[in-house]
Amino acid sequence: VNAGAEYRWKMLAVRGGGHYLKNKWHGAAGAGLSLTSRVSLDVAAFGSSTNLEGREKLGLAVSIRIMSKRR
Q1: Residue 27 to residues 37, 62, 65, Cα–Cα distance (Å)
Q2: Is 30 buried (19+), middle (13-18) or exposed (0-12) by CB count in 10 A?
Q3: Which pLDDT value is given to residue 11?
Q4: Which position among 1, 15, 18, 42 has the lowest Cβ density within 10 Å, counted as fewest Cβ atoms?
Q5: One pLDDT digit (tens) per residue for the chain, 71 residues
Q6: Cα separation of 64 and 68, whole Å?
Q7: Residue 35: closest CA among 6, 18, 11
Q8: Would you tell me how many other CB atoms lie within 10 Å of the CB of residue 43?
């Protein structure tokens, strides 16, 4: 089961959600910021138990999106 939502306000997008796996809910949250018309920065934090111990741990992700020019 997966669920999530996103809210956009001007140059900022805020996201939250989660999924149900191995009898547990794993939450996630993130935000995206448009730096220019072509470049955006995204950050996220999420819970995961896909590790050797099988314990809930925090994962972090950061990405930079560079979009191509419009033709």
Answers
A1: 30, 17, 23
A2: buried
A3: 94
A4: 1
A5: 888 999 999 999 999 999 887 788 888 999 999 999 899 999 999 988 777 777 788 899 999 999 987 66
A6: 13
A7: 11
A8: 13
